[in-house]
Amino acid sequence: MAVFRCKLSRKDQTQRLIVSCDVIGEEHGYETREREFDNESQAATALSQAGIRFDPIPKDAGPGWSRSFEISHNEAQKLDVLHVDSTE
Description:
Strand order of the largest sheet: 4-2-1-5
Distance between the termini: 14 Å
Structural class: alpha+beta
Number of helices: 2
Order of helices and strands: EEEEHEHE
Shape: elongated
Oligomer: single chain
Radius of gyration: 13 Å
């Protein structure tokens, strides 16, 4: 059974936030994507709209900062960081 890990991270000095999904276990049939956000508010809104509960993103989180947590298959799809190959 696949496990889905959402990762939030800072890209670089631009301070953009990256949201991505790692698939652990069953990797076939899944395509992961990254999304970029200009600020914490945009990322928090997207996570909330996907139904994902998370700790607040620190406003002072600099380059190299990251946080990972488990999310559901449905939450990953709603967040648009996971595509399921319908032929599998």
